Amino acid sequence: MPKSVAPAIEAKLPGVGTTIFSAMSALAAEHGAVNLGQGFPDFDCDPALIGLVADAMRDGHNQYPMMAGVPALRQAIAAKIDTLYGHRYDAEREITVTAGATQALLTAILCCVHAGDEVIIIEPAFDSYLPAIRLAGGIAVPVAMQLRDGRFCIPWNEVAAKVSARTRLLIINSPHNPTASILSKADIEALSAIVVNSKLLLIADEVYEHMVYDGARHESVCRYPDLAARAFVISSFGKTYHVTGWKVAYCAAPAELSAHFRSVHQFNVFTVNTPMQHGLAAYMASSAPYDSLPAFYQRKRDLFRDGLAGSRFTLLPSDGSYFQCVRYDAISALPELEFARWLTTHAKVAAIPLSAFYQQPRDAGIVRFCFAKREQTLRLALERLAAL
User: Fold this and answer.
1) 387 pLDDT higher than 70
2) Which residues have a Cβ under 8 Å from the Cβ of 261 and sit 6 or more positions away?
3) pTM to 2 decimal places
4) Which of 6, 174, 198, 214 is the most buried (most CB within 10 A)?
């Protein structure tokens, strides 16, 4: 008999392979490098949180929860947003617990973007935005951030110029991955001027909301009623509580938008890990250390920046998130991807090239490090980087 051959499939994401994060992490493991590439902590969460999840398992919370999420957790999320940003979402109709922020982003895009719709993204952009837009049949319209006096800034005049009759959605991200920039009040005013009289929807990716430094305020879209009225606001327990592997996040949106979001959510994931939801709800009720997070991560940022201050790297500002971008032109003329690979294999420190965050890769001689690591991890990396 002739050998059976699987029918050919036309790729929905042609040209998309393994993500740069997985590739660099694998390279780091192969060469014994300190992994400052992929954005996850190498330290544990609060043991009390693990204990509360274990309690939930022992108490029998091991079956499907409600599709939108455990009510106690949704209520805790709504209360947190109200306390921090002064906007009260209805926990029953406007908060949805998701299987990580990536699933929330995909679901928000799938529920509102139709074939031929345009979606404005700010580049460099987190790598899941573009594939999600393509899966929805949308067309990504990139606007590149500009470096002004060493700072990444959004050229809002260019954003406004990209808005057309086909524009359905604008995705913003603050604190920003990968540039570590944050939106200012002036940015919010410029954004509002663009969308207030339009039919544009917003996705506000705010997964690093609790990592803003030097006394600055996180300008959440939730603070601004005109923006919140048209926005899917996404945040992540993985980032907040150092449990990225748990893949639990949430989307807050007005009731009508949430209804559309849930219509997709119920079929692409249905619901989210039950005992972890109960554990997170109990933890938020007993201890919500949001105020301590900026100082916690700023100490790590400052340790890392101080350690590189005398090196041949040029530090760019890190106003939020747990990332640090650097120029390396005094060290090498290699393109970013080649330099990141050389850094991993020769200097034994893994980084991510900024070019990986663009639809059409561009080289600016910048790589991104993650400083969400133990002090000894950072010091070992700094020792190796300072020797270059």
Assistant:
1) yes
2) 96, 107, 108, 111, 232, 251, 253
3) 0.96
4) 174
